[in-house]
Amino acid sequence: MIRLLIRDLRLALRSGGGFGLGLAFFLIVVVLVPFGVGPETGRLQAIAPGVLWVAALLACLLSLDRIFALDFEDGSLDLLATAPMPMEAVVAVKALAHWLTTGLPLTVAAPVLGVLLHLDAAATPWVLITLAIGTPALSVMGTFGAALTVGLKRGGLLLSLLVLPLYIPTLIFGAEVVRRGAQGLEVATPLLMLGAVSAGAIALVPFASAAAIRIALK
Amino acid sequence: MVSIWGWANPRKFMGWTDTALPVIAVLAAGMLALGLVWGFFFTPDDYRQGATVKIFYIHVPAAMIAINAWGMMLVASLVWIIRRHHVSALAAKAAAPVGMVMTLVALATGAIWGQPMWGTYWEWDPRLTSFLILFLFYLGYIALWEAIEDPDTAADLTSVLCLVGSVFAILSRYAVLFWNQGLHQGASLSMDAEENVADVFWYPALVATAGFALLFVALVLLRTRTEIRARRLHALETRERMVS
Question: For the whole model, what pTM was predicted?
Answer without folding.
Answer: 0.86
